[in-house]
Amino acid sequence: MNTIRTAAIPVFIFSVLLRAQAASDFDWTKVTATKELNWTPCYSGLQCARLEVPLDYSAPDNRVAGIAIVKYSFKSPKSEYRGPILFNPGGPGVSGVDAIVASGEAFGTIFGEQYDIVGFDPRGIHYSTPAASFFKTDVDRAQWEHPGVDDTYPSLNSSYDVIPTQRARYQLLGTLAEIQDTKNILQHITTDNVARDMLSITEAFGFEKLQYWGVSYGTVLGATFASMFPDKVGRLIIDGVMDGEAWYSGNITNSMEDTDATLQTFFDRCAAAGPDACPFHAPTAAAIAANLMALSTSLIDTPIPVITNVSYGVFTYTYLRNVLFTGLYTPYTSFPLLAQGLAQLATGNATILYQMAEEIPYECPRGSQRDPVEFDQNDQEASIPTACGDGPVVTDTVAQLRESYEIGAKLSSFWDMFGNWRVRCSGWKVHRKGHFMGPMGASNTSFPLLVIGNTADPVTPLSSARRTSGYFPGSALLTYDAPGHTSLTAASSCLHNHMRQYFQNGTLPEAGTVCSPDEELFPSTSGNKTVKRSAQDLKLREALRQIHAAVQPMTLRHLPRLR
Ligand SMILES: *[C@@H]1O[C@H](CO)[C@@H](O)[C@H](O)[C@H]1NC(C)=O
Ligand SMILES: *[C@@H]1O[C@H](CO)[C@@H](O)[C@H](O)[C@H]1NC(C)=O
Ligand SMILES: *[C@@H]1O[C@H](CO)[C@@H](O)[C@H](O)[C@H]1NC(C)=O
Ligand SMILES: *[C@@H]1O[C@H](CO)[C@@H](O)[C@H](O)[C@H]1NC(C)=O
Ligand SMILES: *[C@@H]1O[C@H](CO)[C@@H](O)[C@H](O)[C@H]1NC(C)=O
Ligand SMILES: *[C@@H]1O[C@H](CO)[C@@H](O)[C@H](O)[C@H]1NC(C)=O
Ligand SMILES: *[C@@H]1O[C@H](CO)[C@@H](O)[C@H](O)[C@H]1NC(C)=O
Hints:
The chain is of the alpha/beta class. The protein has one domain: Rossmann fold, CATH 3.40.50.1820. It has 20 helices and 14 strands. A ten-stranded mixed beta sheet has the order 2-3-4-6-5-7-8-12-13-14, sandwiched between helices. α1 packs across α2, α2 runs antiparallel to α20 and α6 packs across α7. The structure holds 2-acetamido-2-deoxy-beta-D-glucopyranose (7 copies). One 2-acetamido-2-deoxy-beta-D-glucopyranose binds next to α19. GO terms for molecular function: hydrolase activity. Keywords: Hydrolase, Signal.
């Protein structure tokens, strides 16, 4: 049961596959769900348990879900123990277990060794049971998902029939989901229930109040928790904030407010960095933008075949759009590579850019067909029930989807990528009556929230962080003057000292606090920037580097479905 399926995992430049492999070393099928946390040693040095929670909190005696939980245990003397900090890496659909398996110790370094660092797979997802599944077998799923970015995430602007085709595709997927959902579990995979589960987890640790860090979609989860249980907030950081009001209204158009500004940082900093640090250099930002535009449109007429040592495929306009869009999430790692790839593309070779989103070809499982997947990379299945089931029923016709496209396209040139989420939800049919849909906010949470927003985040603009901070009077807004998605975009001792202070001492940053990253976007190749740092800062930086390396690619794996 434990073979790891590697198809449909775009290989970014990080070592996600190795980590996923490591994460598969533990057999979750042997861990039964219990009402108390029954810890078993796992993943060399961590502890695992499966918590039994009601599948339906309004009928608690009925069926149960089993939440997979991993902890990196506190190391300080018992008298200093401060309870669990729960982490959610976003999606919806990203595995919190894998995140903590890959970097739990680094979390301990950042927040302090008085805490248990806790990762959990939200209900329906990955190692948690029951698993959401739209397909009968892995092979069915692979055949649906496998074709690659061109088919899975087409640019809605790449041809006139993309919107109607995508709409029909998601009508089909929505119907498959309904057919496969004979046990009626999908309707219970919603954010409000995951928030309830977080309270159950906290209480199972023997604590009353939640301590939490959520990034990206994890901010919807965090803010939902604080709205539903304002007196159960111990410490709560939301980082890279999606506006919950928009989320529950089913219209997240505003998410794209800063997307083009993020791309603009590529042009600006590349122009400033010079041709050594930025191979796609031109004398002005405008010239670089024009060169990119020309290259992009040339792909419409002339897609490029690519063969690598891993796979082969055709590098198309849509492929480039995907690479550019996902690149905006992690500029500090992707921009230098993007610049190299674009310079190579200008010579007619698309290998580097192709490799930035390359997928490992699917291999059929050995032996007979496997059971419907319990423990697998059920990415779409983990994401769609929440992303679409949280909002209102969407019944958009092709004409309405085209209309939404026009609205979104006015806001951002990347709407051709992001608009897919609305199309996906137009096929989704499972909505539980009476689930939480807002309003977001609480006049008085039992501890103020810490809200973090970047100045140029491609999918969670600073305005969303500001608005969300407004829903929670007393919360503090910390601005991170950096491009990219969430504070994970780049290490910053300023920012992370604030996060640590918040957890340890309950100190909120002063109003108007702005932190800067410690890293450069296009590091100069001569690299003689010598800033003296304390040993503590260096240790922190190394820990942050580990978390970035582990969590970013997991988050990216789900892109650009939604963040
Ligand atoms: C493929 O080639 C790249 C270098 O271009 C190398 O880093 C990688 O390890 C190779 N992968 C395999 C599976 O051989
Ligand atoms: C393209 O560049 C790659 C290196 O990134 C090289 O291995 C390959 O041979 C080149 N392909 C062509 C057709 O020039
Ligand atoms: C969604 O939100 C945007 C921005 O607030 C708004 O302009 C638009 O009319 C809304 N509705 C649709 C269907 O896009
Ligand atoms: C769609 O593509 C056309 C060219 O094919 C381009 O002019 C237009 O700006 C694109 N629109 C968006 C929103 O990307
Ligand atoms: C807010 O809640 C805290 C803790 O629950 C309490 O001490 C405080 O008095 C409340 N403030 C207001 C304005 O209600
Ligand atoms: C918390 O406050 C105490 C006392 O003011 C201080 O000694 C300690 O360094 C602070 N901890 C952090 C993480 O800033
Ligand atoms: C590198 O250091 C030298 C000497 O300290 C200095 O003159 C030069 O401007 C520096 N270069 C950069 C890019 O900072």
